[in-house]
Amino acid sequence: MDPQVEQQLAPLRARCKDQGDIVRQLKESGAPEVDVKREVQELKNRKKELEDMILSLSPTDTFDRAKMNDLIKRRFFYDISFAIYGGITGQYDFGPMGCDLVDNMLAEWQKHFVIQERMLKVNCSILTSEVVLKASGHVDKFADYMVKDVKTGECFRLDHLIKQHFEKKLSEKKTSQEERETINRKITLLDGMTMEEMDRIVKQYDMKSPLTGNDLSDAMEFNLMFPIYIGPSGNLKGYLRPETAQGIFVNFKRLLEYNQGKLPFACAQVGNAYRNEISPRSGLLRVREFTMAEIEHFCDPDDKTHNKFDQVANTEMMLYSACAQMDGESPRKMTISEAVRGGLVANETLGYYMARIQQYLLKIGINPKKLRFRQHLNNEMAHYACDCWDAECLTSYGWIECVGCADRSAYDLSQHTKGSGVKLCIERPLKEPKMVESFIAVPDKGAIGKAFKKDAKAVQEALAALSNEDAEKMDKALTETGEYDLNGYKLTRAMIPSFKREQKKVHVEEVIPSVIEPSFGIGRVFYSLLEHSFRVREDDDKRTFFSLPAVVAPIKVSVLPLSNKQEFVPFTTKLADALTELNLLVRVDDSTGSIGRRYARTDEIAIPFGVTVDFDTVNNVPHTVTLRERDSTEQVRIPIDDVPLTVKKLADGKIQWKEVTDKWPRFIAQETTK
Amino acid sequence: MDPQVEQQLAPLRARCKDQGDIVRQLKESGAPEVDVKREVQELKNRKKELEDMILSLSPTDTFDRAKMNDLIKRRFFYDISFAIYGGITGQYDFGPMGCDLVDNMLAEWQKHFVIQERMLKVNCSILTSEVVLKASGHVDKFADYMVKDVKTGECFRLDHLIKQHFEKKLSEKKTSQEERETINRKITLLDGMTMEEMDRIVKQYDMKSPLTGNDLSDAMEFNLMFPIYIGPSGNLKGYLRPETAQGIFVNFKRLLEYNQGKLPFACAQVGNAYRNEISPRSGLLRVREFTMAEIEHFCDPDDKTHNKFDQVANTEMMLYSACAQMDGESPRKMTISEAVRGGLVANETLGYYMARIQQYLLKIGINPKKLRFRQHLNNEMAHYACDCWDAECLTSYGWIECVGCADRSAYDLSQHTKGSGVKLCIERPLKEPKMVESFIAVPDKGAIGKAFKKDAKAVQEALAALSNEDAEKMDKALTETGEYDLNGYKLTRAMIPSFKREQKKVHVEEVIPSVIEPSFGIGRVFYSLLEHSFRVREDDDKRTFFSLPAVVAPIKVSVLPLSNKQEFVPFTTKLADALTELNLLVRVDDSTGSIGRRYARTDEIAIPFGVTVDFDTVNNVPHTVTLRERDSTEQVRIPIDDVPLTVKKLADGKIQWKEVTDKWPRFIAQETTK
After folding, report:
1. How far apart are alpha carbons B320 and B646 in whole angstroms?
2. Subunit contact B88:A236, Cβ cutoff 8 A
3. Gene3D superfamilies recorded for this chain (chains A, B) (predicted)?
4. Contacts of B276 in chain A (CB under 8 A)
């Protein structure tokens, strides 16, 4: 960075570092979690100050969101759902352009990950039984805080409400300097507050509904999952899944079998997920219905090497480590190999996926200068995760998380093992067999048979499957109370007169695999991609377009007759059919309007290549046409029969535009837009 | 058909014809609908008798459903959802094989329809506002009948319950001949009964819950949509969409704009839809969550020709007309051109899509002998539809509807025009301009401005947009009551002192487009495809497999080292990588087990081509391998470097297996399965 800029940033960097040191110290001294949390929150705020300053000091970005949104709406990339009925917030319909762009992004994802890594794939129910989401923790923990207008029932997200109220106060002249400082401090701490703390603030400042001025209810938790009652009786409760991952975990056993019992393997799922946001805003970045693409890579917890790591080892990445964040430093560029070898990224498999994620994002057109991987701070990470990095894209909303990449250890499979009673683990051969002591119930089979009749077998099996701990517990209970409840069967001392200890030689051990999870929020990647590829022509600021790579561009090629003269028709028809034959999506624009204006229209919807049929096409043999590239607006003159395969290769990324201009003569023409 | 068989069928055919004539007569004489309905129901039952007899007399089909289901489950094509938690009826998870097969079917669908026909595509919200489904008619009409166990709340579909009760009665010895006949008659009529009629039967026979013996509630309607409350307040009601079509209709205006205002155009959508079935059964054929692929083709109601009809005109199709069904005749083979020219199929566009649907189904592997197009009988058709044909596949469950193809006329766009107040129509130039009389409000602008301030403009616009009828109504109301409510604005006579009549020359007319709708139930096509491609090896009835065409087969090629000797590894790795490089999904099976057993394993999951690396590969230069085709089990010996492109062409359907056996020497080897 520019030394002058660095000078301006230095004090902010120092503020971060000071606070980072406080956090480190508290952690080392084993301070209570609540204290650590408060200081981490302050750290985050200082980090944000620093980032805002960096953004404000960087060379002016001419990006104009309103202009882009106009193009998006005008050419129906996407729009709010049910617009003719007034629309509905937090939901979007993708028009032809948006839909094809997303589909092409996903097709590329499929090739890049599923095919290249030979992953398994599943497609599981979106309607999910409550019991599954109970086990995963979503029923208990997947919530935001809110308050209600006591009269209208209108709901407000608690943190948003408080922030809005405070911001209004700050804008009022009558607010004293002292009050301002108090309020600023409170805003700073908001993100880390408990529901009770926030509720106290609402009451202390006597906050009302910002819409009606009515009183507000007490703060409450609101679970973000949409409940669903399956079947007509209403007895079977479920939810729309809040993520796709659980479908993979609950099928782990079958997937392992499918993979002939071997680790590692990865399984992918692409599909919708749902979150009942309290008050969605920020367009596509916070919606109620969205597409995810998730991968669960299952591996031995003691061996997280990756056999293809060498292939990505030299990938340079912009990494923003937790340490750098605490020290007020900037992200650092390094190879993923350096990061893994140096211990910054927890293991090879996690590093491998980070590099592959970056390769994918760059391939579809994310700007490498607006991409970084940020490590979660310790208290951001789920308690079971070992390490977690987010691929973040810089947009006009700031840095936004687009892809998460986490080592979730054995958490998910353990939870579902507990929840379902089905062991989700592998048997790993021991290097040397070992002796283990078992504590075993010795049942009186006659007594059990008499008591449980046809269920006796199930009881016997449950007894045989008891862990040592549970057997100890049962023995104790039978001694102390004479009874023990085993999966709903009431056992008595008479049925289990004794227990015994046994030495057994075992050759395998049961191990719960670790899970490395790359998780893509497709809508966020899509939105970032639109911002990163939005362009305005230098010579005419009304000509806006998307510079999407051909591989994801919705339509690959346009075919334009110079005018609507009948003699052009056989050529345009034949050419368009030949291109379609190669499974390229073609757009024929034979509307009136100058050729320049029609180029502008095709540029708007990101069509990378355009072919024009003109008088020379008709009159000369061999028949030639012009082929134009969107970003450079360069054109060549090329025989019409060479067009289909040339465009196909360009669209598949097999050749570059330069190879075309090297081979065929340049065609110079005025692009009239009037 | 065999003349002997025809002799047996003749009386059943005659019974159909007799009944068909009764129906025709009733219709001609304009009999009440309820009478027609009853006789049509009897006709349907006779048709079913006839079909059952035809099926029972056809050459024995050796299909063994249990055997197929075993393979489906064992190799995880699909399984009941959340199986480790006991599963949930009516929902299925697709494993790697099922998921890839569906994805490949959809990719082919995309090429066949969207790309080849240059269709538009949308992806709309699944969470749908109530107002949309109110307009479409689903809120009021999308229901089944059911009764509840009054104590447990368990629900039963009314028709299923009655049928089950009657079947039990018929199986009891004590049931008299007379009772049997009555019951049989009632079963026959069940399908066409109203809820009240069925409810009377439940009470007359004193039917109880078949599970508990408890009393049953009165019959009730049960709407099959899943309700959803969007947002935290619970005030915004919606449903999970019951079909994908509505998303296209509500976006019609934007799509028309996108298509530069021109008709015809088609728009496709692929996605999930939901129906809360009362008691789902029949595996994948009746489920609560399913994938649809729908196309809405919008065209001028007065011009339903199709410019590509000539390309399909000679397609031979098995058509089962409504007439043939009424006459007890069999479906007839004819070209789609004959069918359209002869007036059997309502128009070219409908015929074009029927032919394209057939081409698609055959391409992905549906057995042409088990495919027919059945025309809806008059009373099966929605009242607004002009003509409707179902592509039906013959499975072990009988003939099942897989794809519908209907001319829905202007119904959907009219409904949403009414519901939203937004005109979903096109402006069609008139051949000659015509004079029309308008009845126009002449407002007092000052009065309106004073009364409505900033809303005055909206009121003026609403006044200008009034239809003649509404203007008449307003005039009358202002005269009689002095007031009129226009979109919530209260108007008085003082604001609209007068009305005037004006002659205007108009050059265009507003027309609501017709909709032709091909609608694919992907799960049903998928299931039929599995049945149609299930095979058992003649020489070993334990070797079952799916003979799926390469274009949809989940994995395209397997790579098998002859044994796990280290010297094979470099060859298998290099070959597998080269195949993967071409974006082919590859399965390397280096597990122990004879090569024959491994071939059997790869056959099971429908891998069409297999490459084996053996000692000759290692020892000879040029290195050669064997390439095997699944259905014929034929093998050739081919240089290893020629494999990737050869397999790629085979997988894409660019070359046929015969071209491979013509080119390379045959390789003969024992396929040991032991």
Report:
1. 42
2. yes
3. 3.30.40.230, 3.30.720.200, Anticodon-binding domain (3.40.50.800), Bira Bifunctional Protein, Domain 2 (3.30.930.10), S15/NS1, RNA-binding (1.10.287.10)
4. 230-232
Scanning B112-131 for CB atoms below 8 A from A yields 114-116, 118, 120-129, 131
* Tokens 């729309």 found at: A240
| Segment B35-65, tens digit of pLDDT | 888 888 888 888 888 888 888 887 666 789 9
Question: What does the pLDDT look like over A328-364, one tens digit per residue?
Answer: 888 999 999 999 999 999 999 999 999 999 999 999 9
Alpha-carbon distance values, B300 to B293, B388, B414 (Å) = 23, 18, 14
Q: Is the Cβ–Cβ distance between A207 and A216 less than 8 Å?
A: yes
Q: Collect all residues of chain B within an 8 Å Cβ-Cβ radius of residue A85.
A: 129, 131-132, 250, 419-420
The rounded distance, in Å, linking the Cα atoms of B177 and A129 is: 48
Mean pLDDT of B147-166: 90
Do A397 and A282 form a contact (C-beta atoms < 8 A)? yes
pLDDT one-digit tens code per residue, B583-618: 999 999 988 889 999 999 999 999 999 999 999 999
Supply the DSSP symbol for B283. Answer: G
Measured CA distances, A668 to A618, A634, B343 (Å): 19, 8, 55
Reading the block at residue B253, the tokens are 């205006």
- Rounded alpha-carbon distances, angstroms, from residue B156 to A238, B80, B194: 20, 21, 16
Q: Tell me the per-residue pLDDT of A356-375, one tens digit each, with 9 for 90 and over.
A: 999 999 999 999 999 999 99
Report the share of chain A in percent with pLDDT over 90.
Answer: 65
Q: Which of A110, A131, A153 sits opposite B235 (nearest CB)?
A: A153
- How far apart, in whole angstroms, are the C-alpha atoms of residue A671 and residue A543? 12
* DSSP letter, residue B466: -
Better-scored residue on pLDDT, A358 or A453: A358
Predicted TM-score of the model (pTM):
0.87
Provide ipTM, 2 decimals: 0.86
Q: Which residues pair with A510 in a beta bridge?
A: A427
CA distance A661 to A637: 9
Q: How far is CA B1 from CA A78, A216, B63, in A?
A: 55, 78, 21
| Distance between A104 CA and the closest CA of chain B, angstroms | 11
Task: Write out the two tokens for B355.
Answer: 């032919």
A482 Cβ neighbours under 8 A, 6+ residues apart: A492, A493
Contact A634, A659 (CB under 8 A): no
C-alpha–C-alpha distance, residues B559 and B591, integer Å: 11
Chain B contact for A247 (CB, 8 A cutoff): yes
Please, which pLDDT band fits residue A381 given cuts at 50, 70 and 90?
low
- Greater pLDDT, B279 or A417: A417
Inter-chain touch B233–A585, beta carbons under 8 Å: no
Which chain B residues are within 8 Å of A422, Cβ to Cβ?
Answer: 84
* Per-residue CA distances from A158 to A242, B129, B436 (Å): 21, 26, 59
Residue B369 CB-density burial (10 A; 0-12 exposed, 13-18 middle, 19+ buried): exposed
Q: Is A85 near chain B, with CB under 8 Å?
A: yes
Residue in B84, B256, B652 to test binding to A, most A beta-carbons within 10 Å: B84
B367 CB-near residues (< 8 Å, 6+ apart): B532
CB B563 within 8 A of CB B614: no
pLDDT more than 70, % of chain B? 98
Out of A92-96, A119-123, A276-280, A400-404, pick the least confident. A276-280
Q: How far apart (Å, rounded) are the C-alpha atoms in residues B632 and A80?
A: 53
Position B17: which residue type?
K
Residue with tokens 């560029």: A333
**Going by DSSP bridges, is the β-strand pair B316-320/B220-223 parallel, antiparallel, or unpaired?**
unpaired
Q: Which is nearest to B47 in space by CA: B322, B386, B286, B405?
A: B322
CA B184 – CA B196 distance, rounded (Å): 19
The count of CB pairs under 8 A between chains A and B is 222
